[in-house]
Amino acid sequence: MKHWPAQTIAPAVLAVLGVLSLTTWWVYQPGRQMTERKPGADRVTEGTMPGSVSGSNRWEGKLIISNGLPAQLSGIWPQFRGPNRDNINMESIPLARTWGESGPKVLWQIPVGEGFAGPIIWKGRVYLTDYDHTNQSDALRCLSLDDGKEIWRYTYPVKVKRNHGMSRTVPALTDKHLVSFGPKCHVICVKPESGELVWQMDLVRQFNAEVPPWYAGQCPLIDGDHAILGTGGDALLIAVDCATGQVVWKSENPLNWQMTHASITPMEFKGKRMYVYCASGGVAAVSASDGSILWHTPDWKISIATVASPLYVGEGRVFLSGGYNAGSMMLQMKEDGEKWTVETLFRLKPAVFGATQHTPVFHQGHIFGIRPDGQFVGLDLAGKPLWESGAENRYGNGPFLFAGTLVYLVNDNGLLTLAEATPAGFKKLAQFKALQGPDAWGPLALADGRLLIRDLIQMVCIDVTGRD
Predict the structure, then answer these.
(1) Per the omega criterion (within 30 degrees of 0), is the bond before 171 cis?
(2) Using only C-alpha atoms, what is the Rg of the chain?
(3) Is there a contact between 354 and 322 (Cβ–Cβ < 8 Å)?
(4) Which of 23, 31, 170, 200 is 20 to 30 A distant from 113 in Cα terms?
(5) CA-closest candidate to residue 123, choices 193, 179, 27, 171
(6) Helix (H, G, I), strand (E, B) or coil at 28
C-alpha cells in the first residue's frame, strides 16, 4: 500500500476545511440573495400539503354546500373533448348559423381562479377544477347550468404559485363518479350529485410522479369502471377502481418516462383496446386489460411542453402534433400475433401543421386544427393541406369545438367565431366578443345548446341555439 507523507496531507486537509468554511458562510449568511426556482423545480416535497394526515396518503378536505340548483336539462359533455373524447357535439338541438348585430344571448358570467381548466356538463350541472388563491386550496366546483351559482365545492389545501395560471385540467365523470386532477397531481374522486369524497390519491407521494413545468395539464380518463391516469415515475399508466380507489394495474416504466401535459387517448385496433399516451421520452400504447406495454417509440418528443393528445384516425393510424417546432407525424400500428410495432408514415413541418395547445379533431374523414401560426387548417389523411383560414382569421392558442359542420373557435382575447368547416373549405359566419381575455385557452364545452367559454379569470355561458 502506498503511504502519503504528513507534509502532503496537512495542506490538503487545511484546504478542504477552508472550502467547507467558505461554503457554510455563503449558504447561511443572512444577506444572501435567493433566486426564484424555475418552472419544474417545485416537485416531490410539496406533494405533502398543509393538513395532510401524517404518515399516510390522505389529506384533509372540506365539502361546502351552497344554494345553487341544477338546471332541468339532460345534455352531457362529461369529460375532456366531450362524450366520445373527439371534441364533437352530436346533439340534435338546432344551432344558430348567424347571431345578428347583438350577438348570441349571454346567460351568465362568473369569476374563476387563474388558469385554463375547462368545464364539463352533466344534466344541468357544470363541474370545474379550480384554484382558490385566497385560501390556497384546490377546489372542485359544481355549478348550476342555469345561472352559474355554486351548488357545492370540495376543497383541500395545497400551495400553488402563479405560473402562467394554476389549474388547467378538465375533470371526468359518470353518473356515479367524478374524478379531478389537481395542479400538483392530487387526484380525487367524489360523488357527482353530493360532492361526497370517495377516494383521494397523491401521485407524487405514491408513484414518484414529477409535477410537470407549469403544473399538471393531464385530463383524467374514465373508461368503464376505471380511472386511467398517466403518472410517470414508478409506473407509466395506472388503472384505478373508481368505486374503491384501489389500483387495478400499473404499467412498467423501464425508461423512466415522466408525466407531460398531454392526456390519454383510448383507441381500439384489431380487437385490442389500448390507451395511447405521449410521455416525456416518447409515445406508448398500453393494454386496457392489464396495463402491459404493447408498443413504444422515442420518435415523438417535444422539447419544451407536450400538450396535444394522440389523435386516432382509424385503421391503426395515430396522428401526433405539437408546438415548439415539433410539427406533426402519422404513425401506423401493426400487429403480428402478440407483437405490436409502429412505423412512421409521414412527418409535417410546423409551417404545414402542428398543434401547440389544442388537440386536432378527426371529423368528416379529415383532420382539422390550429397550427402554430394561429390559422385553422384542414388536412387529408396523407398530410396534404386542404385549406387554411387565412392571415385575417388567426386564433392563437385558443380552443375550438365542432357541432356538425359548424365550428366554434375562440382566440386568445376571447373573440368567439362561428364558422362552417368541411373538407371543401372554411367559411366565417359570425363573431362575438365573448370575453375580454387574456389567455382564453380553456377547452370548450357544449351541451343543451349552451356553450361554456373561459379566459384566465372569467367563465361565460352562451346560448348558441338562437332561441328567445
Answers:
(1) no
(2) 24
(3) yes
(4) 200
(5) 193
(6) helix
Taking the C-alpha atoms of residue 149 and residue 169, their distance in angstroms, rounded to an integer, is 21
Give the cell for residue 185: 397531481
Q: Cα(6)–Cα(3) distance, rounded to whole angstroms?
A: 9
φ, ψ (nearest 5 deg) of residue 227: -95, 130
CA 107 to mean position of chain CA atoms = 27
Cβ pair 298, 306 in contact under 8 A: no
pLDDT tens track for 176-214: 999 999 999 999 999 999 999 999 999 999 999 999 999
The predicted model scores a pTM of 0.88
Predicted pLDDT of residue 468: 63
Q: How far apart are CA 412 and CA 396, in angstroms?
A: 6
Q: Please name the residues in contact with 115: beta carbons below 8 A apart, sequence gap of 6 or more.
A: 130, 131, 165, 166, 167, 168, 183, 442, 456
Please give the domain boundaries of the chain with CATH numbers for all domains: 55-463 (2.130.10.10)
pLDDT band at 162 (very low <50, low <70, confident <90, very high): confident
Q: What is the pairing mode between strands 88-89 and 400-403?
A: parallel
Handedness of CA 65, 68, 69, 74 (dihedral sign): negative
